[in-house]
């Protein structure tokens, strides 16, 4: 049975249900399969040996998600080749590609959790009511252990960018 968590998150003040476990720093990062594009999948193992900053957004076509992805794209240049920044949403791969092209996003890798919502369920961020992934941040070390976890309690708020970047820098 899939775990459901209530009372932990809201969207504009209205309660929402998160599906999946609440992960913590020190936990093994769960594997997942998401779409790179229509025909190609991606998983955690594709980024083996790298520090992974996983930025989760409900949809790139909203203001906070747009700002969050642009912020991490600009930070990426200073983090070096040992770090990969993944933005995961339930947007279709076509929409992600269109948005990245229009926004000039070239350092962040966008991945779609649309098909199976495997990432959302494994990381405890799938919003039952909307079939979107809740805004959150996960920093995964080179050995696939979670070094930093931020679950936002309100979907419309920004994550703590500075804390996420500091967690990445501590692993370098």
UniProtKB/TrEMBL annotation:
<feature type="domain" description="Thioredoxin">
    <location>
        <begin position="23"/>
        <end position="172"/>
    </location>
</feature>
<dbReference type="InterPro" id="IPR050455">
    <property type="entry name" value="Tpx_Peroxidase_subfamily"/>
</dbReference>
<dbReference type="InterPro" id="IPR002065">
    <property type="entry name" value="TPX"/>
</dbReference>
<dbReference type="InterPro" id="IPR013766">
    <property type="entry name" value="Thioredoxin_domain"/>
</dbReference>
<comment type="function">
    <text>Thiol-specific peroxidase that catalyzes the reduction of hydrogen peroxide and organic hydroperoxides to water and alcohols, respectively. Plays a role in cell protection against oxidative stress by detoxifying peroxides.</text>
</comment>
<feature type="active site" description="Cysteine sulfenic acid (-SOH) intermediate">
    <location>
        <position position="65"/>
    </location>
</feature>
<keyword id="KW-0049">Antioxidant</keyword>
<dbReference type="GO" id="GO:0004601">
    <property type="term" value="F:peroxidase activity"/>
</dbReference>
<keyword id="KW-1015">Disulfide bond</keyword>
<keyword id="KW-0560">Oxidoreductase</keyword>
<comment type="similarity">
    <text>Belongs to the peroxiredoxin family. Tpx subfamily.</text>
</comment>
<dbReference type="InterPro" id="IPR036249">
    <property type="entry name" value="Thioredoxin-like_sf"/>
</dbReference>
<comment type="subunit">
    <text>Homodimer.</text>
</comment>
<keyword id="KW-0676">Redox-active center</keyword>
<dbReference type="Pfam" id="PF08534">
    <property type="entry name" value="Redoxin"/>
</dbReference>
<keyword id="KW-0575">Peroxidase</keyword>
<dbReference type="InterPro" id="IPR018219">
    <property type="entry name" value="Tpx_CS"/>
</dbReference>
<protein>
    <recommendedName>
        <fullName>Thiol peroxidase</fullName>
        <ecNumber>1.11.1.24</ecNumber>
    </recommendedName>
</protein>
<dbReference type="InterPro" id="IPR013740">
    <property type="entry name" value="Redoxin"/>
</dbReference>
């Amino acid at each position: 049975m899939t775990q459901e968590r209530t009372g932990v998150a809201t969207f504009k003040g209205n309660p929402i249900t998160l599906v999946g476990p609440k992960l913590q720093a020190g936990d093994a990062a769960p594997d997942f399969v998401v779409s790179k594009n229509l025909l190609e999948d991606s998983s955690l193992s594709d980024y083996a040996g790298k520090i992974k900053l996983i930025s989760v957004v409900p949809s790139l076509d909203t203001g906070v998600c747009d700002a969050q992805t642009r912020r991490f794209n600009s930070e990426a240049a200073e983090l070096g080749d040992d770090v990969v920044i993944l933005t995961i949403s339930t947007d279709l791969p076509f929409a992600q590609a269109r948005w990245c092209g229009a926004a000039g996003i070239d350092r962040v890798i966008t991945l779609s959790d649309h098909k199976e919502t495997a990432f959302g369920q494994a990381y405890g961020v799938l919003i039952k009511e909307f079939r979107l992934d809740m805004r959150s941040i996960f920093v995964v070390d080179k050995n696939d252990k979670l070094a930093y976890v931020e679950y936002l309690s309100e979907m419309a708020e920004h994550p703590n960018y500075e804390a996420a970047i500091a967690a990445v820098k501590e692993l370098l």
